């Protein structure tokens, strides 16, 4: 009985492997230097007391114990969850509506460009522009409110209005990008299914619930994972509009972490809160992926 021996890789295959490694090297180097190493360094610092001026001092779980007993940390987490709930809820509904309208009524590239325009603006610029627009005394937004006969609203200076306002500012900036991601997912749904629905007498509303939404589920799930992670990392809009105020009403977790690290030089404690946020986001991502079955599609 003869056993066939596996032939060694050809020179061409080895050459392709070296070429692939050459192209991957810059990305892998960037990943290691700017993501992997800072993450590992941050995990280490979370177990130390470190202020940049002296070497890190090992304190074990001291920072995590302090975090659990820190009321401001829990308040910041609550504020962040409130922001995420408003931002994701409104953004997802609006983006889905825009994507469906783009797919069902028009597929104009110009219109898609207009929808994407706010996303091309940085968060800092968007925050400054809306800070001017919503200024209580001179903002054009409050001028319109006053012109309609209502009292001026301190959108960014009131504890009740501040977080919803910041959330809606970021909805305005990101909704076009999210809509285009969903629009790309809608393009993968065969038109035959809509034609079959029309033949059966289904309305547009019924086809949305029975065809569009179920078949869009994998793309919608991935988009939700991306937007939730991004929303938990909100910082720049808060920094340029409210600076965490009024009375810590917009002191989101990222802003609190920044203040602990670069305001009070408590880098160990800030690292511990960052690691906690990483764990929370990892758990949320895992649950979203499992519950929405993001890895499976209903398309045959």
Descriptive account of the structure:
With 300 residues, the chain is mainly α. It is 70% helix and 1% strand. The chain has twelve helices and two strands; from the N terminus they run H-E-E-H-H-H-H-H-H-H-H-H-H-H. The protein has helices at residues 11-45, 62-68, 71-104, 109-116, 123-133, 140-147, 162-186, 191-199, 204-232, 236-241, 253-263, 267-292, and strands at residues 48-49, 57-58. A two-stranded antiparallel sheet has the order 1-2. Strand 1 (48-49) and strand 2 (57-58) form a beta hairpin. Helix 9 (204-232) runs antiparallel to helix 12. It starts with 10 loop residues before the first helix and ends in an 8-residue tail after the last helix. The model has no long low-confidence stretch (mean pLDDT 89).
Keywords:
globular, mainly alpha, 300 residues
């Amino acid at each position: 009985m003869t056993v066939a021996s596996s032939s060694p890789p050809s020179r061409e295959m080895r050459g392709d492997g070296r070429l692939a490694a050459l192209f991957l090297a810059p990305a892998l180097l960037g990943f290691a230097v700017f993501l992997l190493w800072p993450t590992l360094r941050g995990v280490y610092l979370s177990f130390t007391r470190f202020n940049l001026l002296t070497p890190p001092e090992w304190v074990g779980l001291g920072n995590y114990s302090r975090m659990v007993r820190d009321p401001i940390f829990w308040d910041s987490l609550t504020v962040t969850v409130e922001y995420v709930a408003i931002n994701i809820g409104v953004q997802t509904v609006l983006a889905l509506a825009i994507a469906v309208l783009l797919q069902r009524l028009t597929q104009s590239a110009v219109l898609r460009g207009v929808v994407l325009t706010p996303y091309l603006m940085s968060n800092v610029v968007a925050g400054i522009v809306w800070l001017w627009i919503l200024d209580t005394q001179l903002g054009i937004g409050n001028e319109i409110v006053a012109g309609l006969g209502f009292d001026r609203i301190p959108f960014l200076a009131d504890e009740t209005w501040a977080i919803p306002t910041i959330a809606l500012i970021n909805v305005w900036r990101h909704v076009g990008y999210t809509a285009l991601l969903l629009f790309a997912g809608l393009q993968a749904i065969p038109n035959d299914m809509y034609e079959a629905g029309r033949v059966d007498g289904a309305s547009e509303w019924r086809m949305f619930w029975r065809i569009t939404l179920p078949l869009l589920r994998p793309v919608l799930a991935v988009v939700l994972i991306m937007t939730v992670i991004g929303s938990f990392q909100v910082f720049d809009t808060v920094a340029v509009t409210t600076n965490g105020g009024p009375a810590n009403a917009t002191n989101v977790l990222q802003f609190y972490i920044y203040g602990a690290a670069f305001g009070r030089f408590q880098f160990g404690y800030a690292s511990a809160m960052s690691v906690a946020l990483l764990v929370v986001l990892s758990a949320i991502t895992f649950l979203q992926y499992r519950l929405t079955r993001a890895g499976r599609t209903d398309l045959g």
